[in-house]
Amino acid sequence: MTSVQQEAALSLAETHPAGNVGHMKILVIEDDLEAAVYLTKAFREAGIIADHASDGESGLFMGSENTYDVIIIDRMLPRRDGLSVISELRRKGIHTPVLILSALGQVDDRVTGLRAGGDDYLPKPYAFSELLARVEVLGRRKGTPDQDVVYRVGDLELDRLAHEVRRGGKEIALQPREFRLLEYLMKNAGQVVTRTMLLENVWDYHFDPQTNVIDVHVSRLRSKIETDVSQPLLKTIRGAGYMIKDEG
């Protein structure tokens, strides 16, 4: 961010405060110290609490250990790149909305960022008024956090914090995507979950509706959670999607 943009950011923050931000708290992960100082100051002038991390490892630690409404992250960071930070947060089950703020602004760059788990992407240079508006939208999208730490369906148990899955007391090793898939199914236990819902909430982007990627992952998941059991829980609802339910 140039000095002119920085001054403009402060001016905009003072004259156009964020609407309905309440006690919004954000994390800015940016290695350019001068830009970060002006950016966090601009957000604070707009009534938003803004913490700063200067590298990827620090940002990952702060984003994992603290609760934020939105995380703003650069892609090119020392110690750990931005996309790696996002992927690790998602692997840990942390779904805080993330806005990627990067000089890498080509279409392929934006697609890569969104597919890595980002919720929004704003190329540099940018107008602070737009950044502020996007942060407000992401903050509203977060809504009420899911307070459940452990999901249970029959003898199947998923611990979101420990990142563990057990059935009948026996631990089951799942890949990160399988864990997210099972987590979403168990969160919506007893309800039909469509392929579109899974694509948008587990993969974070849109596939061709005709793709078989969902079926492949569900099949792999089923083979792991329903081995040597008498009561199947994961059901395919023909023409609709999937459902996880304890019939007992």
Blueprint of the fold:
Elements: H1 3-15, E1 25-29, H2 33-45, E2 49-53, H3 56-65, E3 70-73, H4 82-91, E4 98-102, H5 107-115, E5 120-123, H6 128-142, E6 150-153, E7 156-159, E8 164-167, E9 170-172, H7 176-187, H8 195-201, H9 213-225, E10 234-237, E11 241-244
Question: How would you describe the overall organization of this protein?
Answer:
This protein is of the alpha/beta class. The protein folds into two domains: 3-142, Rossmann fold (3-Layer(aba) Sandwich), CATH 3.40.50; 150-244, Winged helix-like DNA-binding domain superfamily/Winged helix DNA-binding domain (Arc Repressor Mutant, subunit A). The chain is 41% helix and 19% strand. The chain is built from nine helices and eleven strands. It has helices at residues 3-15, 33-45, 56-65, 82-91, 107-115, 128-142, 176-187, 195-201, 213-225; strands at 25-29, 49-53, 70-73, 98-102, 120-123, 150-153, 156-159, 164-167, 170-172, 234-237, 241-244. The strands form three sheets. It has a five-stranded parallel β-sheet, with helices on both faces. A four-stranded antiparallel β-sheet has the order 6-7-8-9, covered by helices on one side. It has a two-stranded antiparallel ribbon with strand order 10-11. Helix 1 packs parallel to helix 2 and helix 3 (56-65) runs parallel beside helix 4 (82-91). The chain is elongated, with a radius of gyration of 20 Å. The chain starts with a helix and ends with a strand. Residues 1-22 have low confidence and may be disordered.
